[in-house]
């Protein structure tokens, strides 16, 4: 087959991606650097000094970091337990983790509104104990955090189960045969070997929660995160310049995080040797 | 006139030439195998003939027709793949019928031909099974039947038996030979199993780095390798480069230092390199002074091979390997004399000898 | 001992994951106009309410149509690309592989905004068409990824065998390759469908007169009302999700999700 023939197969896809992804994204990014035809960084200067915007950025970063951390802490033991289960039980637990993953984020966030909202279950329970002021954590950063953990926990669990299955029983058995206790095996064998997968999972969770829209939009109320801020500026306020600046910042930050984590994961993987030859 | 003829073909992958000025002729009905070390271009040659690769020069003719630019699906050659390549989603019947259906053969004829083929390869009543329900050997029979049923102008085999166990390989190869001879279709057979090639082929081509170094009948290759590469590839472990030669009537004598060797040959190529198999050297305890075709040395290692012992013997002209059956073996350090009779020597042309062959 | 502790944490994790969904499921059958748990009286009226009026029905139709059409286009351009990337060696392959996956790497909200700005405003493409294009883009990576992983396990000498027996390249693809990666393709299509059907980030920018997908319609509804209609609708969507999940599991096995 001629060399060019091969590219023919890719052409339709490339055309679609170029027209409807590369051009719009590149256009958005480039537009932030030009004002009336001349190069400028004024847009960035302006917003990176605006305390309101910086606060939103900070809240978003903090929430994503916390989400990532909580997801790891909860997912790791759960994934370890699942990977040790008998096949049937493992299958059931995996399906139970996959189900939320495939369920609409609108549905999942809404289910928390039912619990956290005014007249929701928590509110009602408090009333039962005689608390007369109806309190609600809906529309607070905490609500966003809960929603995001709920959104990304299944992904963390499933990624980690995959990693732990890949480690394989032979390594664990080897450790045991050498006299390692269950906890030694966990801390010295399983945990270090899981690190590359843990990192991959964390990238997904961090970037995912940093850019998530639906959950903060439903559970955050007036409390903005960067994605809802972008939406407000683009649609409600029609400030495209600002929206584009925010969009660019989101892309850059996402890619920087992906880059750093990939680099770190690469380092760890090289040092630890790759699992499974 | 030969049935298959490759003239000056050439193939390159990413600008690296794999085959260059490559020539091969095969008479009607003959099975030629390509034998050579890994990476020497056997598969490449076969895929070129099949049409999966294009030659950027020269020509390929089969049965007097030029095939150089004919696409694969218009060639009517049967290809048998190393991993069988059966269609997993089709029954055995449909697998074998596939080629006939491409040729728009009538339903009735298709049925008859497929059934004939199943019988030929000994798989009657298997037509409704699926590939995953067959053993390796049975799959390979289906693959052969599938290639054969289209009544191809040429059969191509790429290591068809390498995924089978040793016993099955032996019985399958005689079956392939039987089927090929019965059908009378010329075939090219790739393998890197020497014994398999020798037992199955009319002629064997020994390849090295994209070049056929020798194309000959199996026995001729075995006894009379033409180059040092071929010699080492088929088990001549001992090489001796002579210093000079003298014609002494009908008996040419070769000299290496103080040693003299009488060497008999059919055709004088003027070559100065002699090779001899480990099996053809006789080892005697040191004693009387050495004469013509003898060399004294010391045993370095002795390895038990089962039927015989293999000795590594150090001599003034380098180390020699010799096999010998004995009840009381030599020990390392023993002084011995190597006896290398004139008719066991073969004179070869120098060619590049791959390092593993030593 | 350690196992007990792990089991307990796992139990908590799954309670956290599934509890809210279960609570919503139960509350959706309440009679009261606000969500109660457990409800005092039971009723199916909120389920009936979904089908009252055209609000959700139209949005549902739009969602189905956009996801389906986008899926077909993504398959049409994604299948040959996935095939070429598994089958051939060529320059720039790694880059192209990343490019075809990149729509999932770009934040959805950013892609949505960029599409609004350039596709709808600059290129003047109608909202409905833009919605379809946007969904095609987000489905492409899922289609390409699932099909690629199927093709990577496919032994292409089978295709060559077909060609050597006289099939044309195109014929061999449709009669030999396609039937063997069929389940992968269906799984890819279903996963992409769910991704598109649930999408908010792109669709939220692409609403117009009479054009809105179901998730966006639900968001709008929640902003204004807090009755159990959305809970009832959510339950129906969860049922749909569960059915599709089992189909995907049948087709490619659970390992599709765990082995990335
Ligand atoms: N698709 C390819 N791209 C680049 N180089 C290739 C390709 N296929 C084969 N080669 C190179 O061509 C040379 C010949 O390969 P070929 O497959 O013909 O060897 P072979 O004799 O069949 O070896 P083996 O006994 O291992 O099957 C090798 O050096 C190989 O690395
Ligand atoms: Mg080969």
Automatic annotation (TrEMBL), chain A:
Main location: membrane
Any one biological process term the GO annotation gives: transmembrane transport
Location within or outside the cell: Cell membrane
Lipid bilayer topology: Multi-pass membrane protein
Superkingdom of source: Bacteria
GO cellular component, one term: plasma membrane
Family of the protein in this entry: Belongs to the binding-protein-dependent transport system permease family. CysTW subfamily.
Entry keyword set: Cell membrane, Membrane, Transmembrane, Transmembrane helix, Transport
Ranges annotated as spanning the membrane: 7-33, 53-80, 92-115, 135-164, 185-213, 240-265
Sequence ranges assigned to domain ABC transmembrane type-1 in this UniProt record: 57-261
Keyword Transport: yes
Protein name: Putative spermidine/putrescine transport system permease protein
Pfam families listed in its UniProt record: BPD_transp_1 (PF00528)
From TrEMBL, chain B:
Alphabetical list of SMART domains matching this protein: AAA
Annotated EC: 7.6.2.9
Ranges where the ABC transporter domain occurs: 4-234
Keywords in alphabetical order: ATP-binding, Nucleotide-binding, Transport
Reaction equation(s) it catalyzes: a quaternary ammonium(out) + ATP + H2O = a quaternary ammonium(in) + ADP + phosphate + H(+)
GO cellular component: ATP-binding cassette (ABC) transporter complex
PANTHER family, sorted: SPERMIDINE/PUTRESCINE IMPORT ATP-BINDING PROTEIN POTA, SPERMIDINE_PUTRESCINE IMPORT ATP-BINDING PROTEIN POTA
Name by which UniProt lists this protein: Carnitine transport ATP-binding protein OpuCA
Native source species: Sinobaca qinghaiensis
Top-level taxonomy: Bacteria, Bacillati, Bacillota, Bacilli, Bacillales
UniProtKB/TrEMBL annotation, chain C:
Major location (coarse): membrane
Membrane-spanning residues: 60-83, 95-119, 125-144, 172-194, 230-252
One Pfam family named in its UniProt record: BPD_transp_1
GO cellular component: plasma membrane
Keywords, alphabetical: Cell inner membrane, Cell membrane, Membrane, Transmembrane, Transmembrane helix, Transport
Domain ABC transmembrane type-1: 60-248
Alphabetized InterPro entries for the sequence: MetI-like (IPR000515), MetI-like_sf (IPR035906)
Gene3D superfamilies named in the record: MetI-like (1.10.3720.10)
Localization annotation: Cell inner membrane; Cell membrane
Any Gene Ontology biological process: transmembrane transport
Alphabetical list of SUPFAM superfamilies matching this protein: MetI-like
Bilayer topology term: Multi-pass membrane protein
Family named by the database record: Belongs to the binding-protein-dependent transport system permease family.
Full protein name: Putative spermidine/putrescine transport system permease protein
Species this protein is from: Sinobaca qinghaiensis
Native organism taxonomy: Bacteria, Bacillati, Bacillota, Bacilli, Bacillales
């Amino acid at each position: 087959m001629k060399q060019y023939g091969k590219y023919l197969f890719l052409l339709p896809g490339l055309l679609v991606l170029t027209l409807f992804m590369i051009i719009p994204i590149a256009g958005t990014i480039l537009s932030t650097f030009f004002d009336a035809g001349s190069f400028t960084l004024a847009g960035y200067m302006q917003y990176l000094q605006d305390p309101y915007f910086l606060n939103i950025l900070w809240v978003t970063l903090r929430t994503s970091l916390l989400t990532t951390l909580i997801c790891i802490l909860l997912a790791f033991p759960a994934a370890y337990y699942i990977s040790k289960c008998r096949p049937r039980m493992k299958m059931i637990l995996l399906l139970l983790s996959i189900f939320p993953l495939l369920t609409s984020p609108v549905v999942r966030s809404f289910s928390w509104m039912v619990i956290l909202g005014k007249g929701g279950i928590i509110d009602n329970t408090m009333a039962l104990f005689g608390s007369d002021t109806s309190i609600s954590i809906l529309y607070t950063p905490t609500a966003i955090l809960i929603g995001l953990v709920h959104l990304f926990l299944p992904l963390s669990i499933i990624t980690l189960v995959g990693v732990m299955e890949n480690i394989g029983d032979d390594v664990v058995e080897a450790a045991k045969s050498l006299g390692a206790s269950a906890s030694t095996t966990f801390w010295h064998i399983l945990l270090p070997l899981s690190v590359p997968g843990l990192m991959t999972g964390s990238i997904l969770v961090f970037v995912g929660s940093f850019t998530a829209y639906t959950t903060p939009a439903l559970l955050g109320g007036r409390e903005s995160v960067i994605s809802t801020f972008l939406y407000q500026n683009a649609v409600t306020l029609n400030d495209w310049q600002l929206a584009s600046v925010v969009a660019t910042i989101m892309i850059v930050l996402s890619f920087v995080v992906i880059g750093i984590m990939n680099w770190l994961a690469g380092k760890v993987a090289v040092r630890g040797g790759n699992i499974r030859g | 006139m030969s049935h298959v003829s490759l003239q000056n073909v050439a193939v390159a992958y990413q600008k690296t030439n794999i085959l260059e000025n490559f020539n091969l002729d095969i008479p009607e009905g003959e099975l030629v195998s390509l034998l050579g070390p890994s990476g020497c271009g056997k598969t490449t040659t076969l895929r070129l003939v099949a049409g999966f690769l294009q030659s950027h020069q020269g020509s390929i003719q089969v049965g007097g027709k030029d095939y150089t630019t004919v696409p694969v699906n218009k060639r009517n050659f049967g290809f048998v793949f190393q991993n069988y390549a059966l269609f997993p989603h089709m029954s055995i019947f449909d697998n074998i019928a596939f080629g006939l259906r491409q040729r728009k053969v009538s339903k009735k004829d298709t049925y008859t031909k497929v059934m004939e083929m199943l019988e030929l390869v000994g798989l009657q009543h298997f037509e409704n099974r699926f590939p995953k329900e067959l053993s390796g050997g049975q799959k390979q029979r289906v693959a052969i039947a599938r290639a054969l049923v289209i009544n191809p102008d040429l059969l191509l085999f790429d290591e068809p038996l390498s995924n089978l166990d040793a016993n099955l390989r032996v019985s399958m190869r005689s079956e392939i030979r039987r089927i090929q001879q019965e059908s009378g279709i010329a075939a090219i057979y790739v393998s890197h199993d020497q014994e398999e090639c020798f037992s199955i082929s009319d002629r064997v081509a020994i390849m090295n780095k994209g070049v056929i170094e020798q194309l000959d009948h199996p026995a001729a290759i075995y006894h009379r390798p033409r180059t040092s590469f071929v010699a080492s590839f088929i088990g001549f472990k001992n090489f001796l480069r002579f210093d000079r030669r003298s014609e002494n009537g009908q008996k040419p004598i070769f000299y290496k230092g103080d040693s003299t060797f009488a060497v008999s040959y059919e055709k004088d190529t003027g070559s100065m390199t002699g090779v001899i198999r480990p099996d053809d050297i006789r080892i005697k305890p040191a004693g009387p002074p050495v004469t013509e075709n003898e060399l004294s040395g010391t045993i370095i290692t002795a390895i038990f091979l089962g039927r015989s012992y293999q000795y590594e013997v150090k001599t003034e002209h380098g180390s020699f390997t010799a096999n010998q059956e004995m009840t009381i073996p030599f020990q390392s350090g023993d002084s011995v004399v190597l006896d290398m009779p004139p008719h066991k020597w073969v004179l070869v042309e120098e060619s590049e000898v791959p390092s593993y062959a030593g | 001992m350690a196992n007990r502790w792990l089991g307990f944490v796992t139990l908590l994790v799954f309670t956290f994951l599934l509890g809210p969904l279960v609570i919503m499921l139960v509350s959706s059958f309440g009679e009261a106009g606000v969500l109660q748990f457990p409800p005092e009286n039971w009723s199916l009226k909120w389920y009936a309410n979904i089908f009252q009026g055209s609000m959700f029905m139209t949005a549902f139709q739009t969602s189905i149509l956009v996801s389906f059409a986008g899926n077909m286009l993504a398959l049409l351009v994604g299948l040959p690309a996935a095939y070429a990337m598994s089958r051939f060696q060529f320059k720039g392959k790694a880059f192209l592989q990343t490019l075809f996956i990149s729509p999932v790497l770009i934040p959805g909200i950013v892609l949505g905004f960029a599409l609004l700005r350039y596709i709808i405003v600059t290129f003047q493409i109608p909202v409905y068409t833009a919605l379809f294009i946007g969904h095609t883009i987000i489905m492409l990576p899922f289609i390409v990824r699932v099909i690629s992983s199927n093709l990577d396990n496919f032994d292409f000498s089978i295709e060559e065998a077909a060609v050597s027996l006289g099939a044309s390249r195109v014929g061999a693809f449709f009669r030999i390759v396609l039937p063997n990666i069929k389940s992968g393709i269906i799984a890819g299509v279903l996963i992409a469908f769910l991704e598109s059907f649930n999408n908010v980030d792109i669709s939220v920018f692409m609403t117009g007169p009479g054009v809105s997908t179901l998730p966006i319609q639900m968001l709008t509804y929640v902003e204004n009302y807090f009755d159990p209609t959305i809970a009832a609708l959510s339950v129906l969507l969860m049922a749909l999700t569960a059915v599709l999940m089992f189909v995907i599991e049948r087709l490619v096995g659970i390992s599709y999700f765990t082995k990335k």
